[in-house]
User: Fold these one by one.
Assistant:
Number 1:
Amino acid sequence: MAISPRVGGGSTSQSAARILIILDRLGQQPSQADLIATPGVVKVVRALSRLAKLDFWLRNPDYLADEVLTDIGSGHISPADGLPHVDRMLAGPAPLLHLYPMRRYKYGAWELPDNAIAVLKSYGFVTTRRAREIDTEASSKARRDYFLQEAGAAAIATMRDEIEQIKWYDEQAEAIGLLDVRETGSAAKVRQYQQPEYKATPVGRPVSSILDRVRPRFEKVAATHGYATTSAPSPALDGSEA
């Protein structure tokens, strides 16, 4: 089976842009302790695990669409809020054009963002810090937090004005923000492992697509709520695993 060249998240600049969007749209407000330790921060995502899980949904429209449908069914998301997002994610070539598969490892979909983070740090856009800055062997395994600096917030605001494609990822982040998931990576991990295709993907392989079953599920939910869909199947892109 051919591996899509999109596996790995695309170019370093694409990965960096997604990280800025995740921090800006889905980050928490920094605590007073954060502001003292890292001046100039405006948002924080606590732990690489959460950053990776959010990035998975950002770049896998089929999985995010299915999660939104699940929360519509549970009543956590209203159909008026959720169905337009699902429609957008599944319309025409969108779910393949915006698909950047992530490999599954022992603890789920995972990808080190080191190159993108290095670039963002070099511009003063992002800062990282261990949750415990203690000079012990255990400190090397402490949770790493990711902080958006004021310069990074200004940079993503400029990108929104200049790069049309950013709108798609802002809307993806908005849809993720609707989900019934707490501010931890473990909560997102539990939801992602509830997807049988995700769980069954062999370690080291790109997580399998669920587009073929999400489209009919959306059509059924949309019909139930009287929502007129615009989504329609489209041919797979060259080199994709869809």
Number 2:
Amino acid sequence: MVSFLEPPHAERHSAFEDFQGIVVGTVLMALCVQFLQASGLITGQIAGLSLTLSYASGIGFAAVFFVLNLPFYVIALIRMGYRFTLKTFAAVGLMSLWTYLLPSVMRIETLHPLAGAVLAGITAGAGLIVLFRHGATLGGVGIVAMWLQDSKGIKAGWVQLGFDLCVFALAASLFDAATVAYSLAGAAITNIMIATNHRRDRYIAR
């Protein structure tokens, strides 16, 4: 039986290809977090909620991000299968590790919010596309977005952008207008990249 996660006659990535893809994707996402934190911005999805809670509570982003993703693994296991769930669990764990380690080896002293938004949006978009193409995501809304795209044909980028609008509506009550506007611009770049580059009819291999 062909899974809805993979088009007919698709050639699977090897274990090594999946490994390097997940490493590259999570490093790009961890770099995105560094850009966001250096410019005082937030983002959408679970990562955005994690950043908001991290700013408000003082708890490290890595710990908050990992814990908030745990309930979504049940959805992933039921709807997407064990391969996707294991890859996603590994991706979330690796990103948590990279976001914990990166500040000890790099420090961004000055970053204009607009530059931060653009750089974060591009690195997040590239990182998520790499993860999606290797059958993983970073949990949360990404799980639902991947399932809807692969089973219903609804583009993952648009699903995530819709959720992000809800996140930023909440953020508007916690952050100033400029911060929300810059952050929304970065999230829009990410989701436009995903919507235009992650397409089942062009390239998806598992």
